[in-house]
Design goal:
3 strands; SPOR domain-containing protein; elongated; about 60 residues; alpha+beta; 2 helices; about 40% helix
Length: about 60
């Protein structure tokens, strides 16, 4: 496998994987490195919280 392939978090195996080793339905990513892929669920939670705050601020619900 080429080292230029991105990292993914596999929901099926619950671990970071280098390259597309599973069907897309099981993958989160791509991520730039293994450490970020390992934190995939936290990264997604952080992004969602930030987007929800932006939506509240935009709609004036803050």
């Amino acid at each position: 496998m080429e080292s230029s392939e991105p990292w993914f978090y596999c929901l099926k195996h619950r671990r970071p994987e280098h390259g597309r080793q599973e069907a897309e339905q099981y993958l989160l990513g791509p991520f730039p490195d293994e450490a970020t892929a390992a934190r995939a669920l936290d990264v997604i939670r952080e992004r969602e919280a930030r987007k929800e705050a932006e939506d509240r601020a935009w709609s004036g619900d803050d």
